[in-house]
Design a protein that fits this description.
The structure holds two protein chains of two kinds. By secondary structure, chain A is an alpha/beta fold. In chain A, 41% of the residues lie in helices and 20% in strands. Chain A contains 13 helices and 18 strands. In chain A, strand 6, helix 7 (138-153) and strand 7 form a beta-alpha-beta unit. In chain A, helix 1 (7-17) crosses helix 2 and helix 1 (7-17) packs parallel to helix 7 (138-153). Chain A is globular. Chain B is an alpha+beta fold. Chain B has a domain at 37-101: 2-Layer Sandwich (Alpha-Beta Plaits). Helix content of chain B is 25%, strand content 15%. Chain B has three helices and five strands; from the N terminus they run αββαββαβ. Chain B has a two-stranded antiparallel sheet. A two-stranded antiparallel sheet of chain B has the order 3-4. The longest helix of chain B is centred in the first third of the chain and has 16 residues, at 10-25. The N and C termini of chain B lie far apart (73 Å). Classes of the chains: A alpha/beta, B alpha+beta. Chain A binds chain B through residues 96-97, 154-158, 195-197, 204-211, 215, 218-219, 222, 225-226, 228-229, 231-233, 303-304, 306-307, 310-311, and chain B through 1, 3-7, 10-11, 13-15, 17-18, 20-22, 24-29, 33-34. Strand 9 of chain A pairs antiparallel with strand 1 of chain B.
Chain lengths: 393, 104
Amino acid sequence: MRKVLIGNVAIAEAVKLARVEVISAYPITPQTIIVEKLAEMVDSGELNAKYIRVDSEHSALAAVYGASAGGSRVFTATSSHGLLYMYEMLWWIANSRLPVVMSVVTRSLGPPWNIHTDHQDALTIRDAGWIIGFAENVQEVFDMTLQAYKISEDKRVLLPSIIALDGFILSHTAEPLEIPSQSEVDGWLPPREPLPFVMKPGESFAVGNLGPDEVTMELRWYIWRAMERAKKIIEDVDKEYGELTGREYGGLTEKYRVDDADYIVLGMGSWSGDMKEAIDVLRDEGYKVGLLRIRYVRPFPMEDILKYCVPAKAVLVYDRAVSMGYGGILAGEASSILRGKTPLKSVVAGLGGVDMRSEEFVDSIKRFIEEYEMDKDVEWLNTYWLLKGGGEG
Amino acid sequence: MEVKYRVSDIDSEGIVDAKMFREKLLSKPSNGSAGRTGTWRLYKPVISYDKCTKCGFCWLYCPDDVITWKPREYPVIDMEYCKGCGICADVCPVDAIEMVLEGE
């Protein structure tokens, strides 16, 4: 079926098709429409799920934690400050290995009060043990949400997933969307197995009781291994979903005109579309440049970054999030993998929803290439800020 | 450069891992599942059975369920697991329980 839907409603459709059994959420812009739409679906009987209303995001995640420990397939969604308020429960869920799926509609953190997108909120939870995916468009948001259940519930993974989408740019923008039928999804996504454990009335056990210190460390090691295995599972699920729907994205990364590229651009989220337009323009002008789009931040696509960035002359990373006192977050991650093998320039832009048009990508990519061509030993030690109204670039 | 995964046989390893972490993460309630908590005790409760009225308050209030008691019977404290919190001595309506420093 083909429909024109905004990102938030597309997610609700994916959650319905996944036959989610328990939903709990607390409203926050720009996420609210997802859970409003799901509430309507539950109310009308279109979706047979329990909808738990709560007093906060912390409680929302606690509620789905309990429901997931009880064996249900669950969903919640949040944004920005709501995600930060969930922070403690994020660790409880990952450390308990429960396959919870959550949408994070990315939004800047205040002050100043700002409801528009950057990636700062979703990247604060990098280290919590969740699989974290970033979508480029509404179709991919829908596809990644459905795939998240298959990946998280795989018995070789058993880790929670977050699918991040840019606030307003994807959450509130209508795009054509291909929706598979319920029977197609049912054939591909079976009901959740009772894994990793199911709490039932009458069967008493405790999750994560006090124990020897060595047990804590050993449990972290199992999460580490599961995250490593998840790389392959994400690729496999992407391929089999591609066979089902005709849409295959490339696993942990999307490779856009990178095969013969001298210069690699790294980025993620909705502005990757503008980057692709910029790359097409630059290719027409003779610049050999390609985009390696990060689809999953965790597990991080180290192998792809090495494969495509080491043979390149230089790498340019656009970040919509910054680690104060260090640099662009994605740039920091990529350069720690490259370890100086390829020169890397870190650019921070688009914070607080500041728009970046494809022409601005053309200009800044050209400038990066010229800098490198003029001085092949260039070391971009600074993090460059693209400030609108005057700034470094 | 070829893409390689560090975990070679991911199917079997994944299933073994799932079993292992379940064993470590989950625990069944049982006597002393947190160890011999009696060793934490500084003061031990001592019941004077000549004063005790068999009311069962100590059994009711014990937060660690280490006191056994039945109606019309004297209570008995399991000193292997009693942490010596003193709640039983505090709630005893006839002051039949005294907290005595260990080793004295």
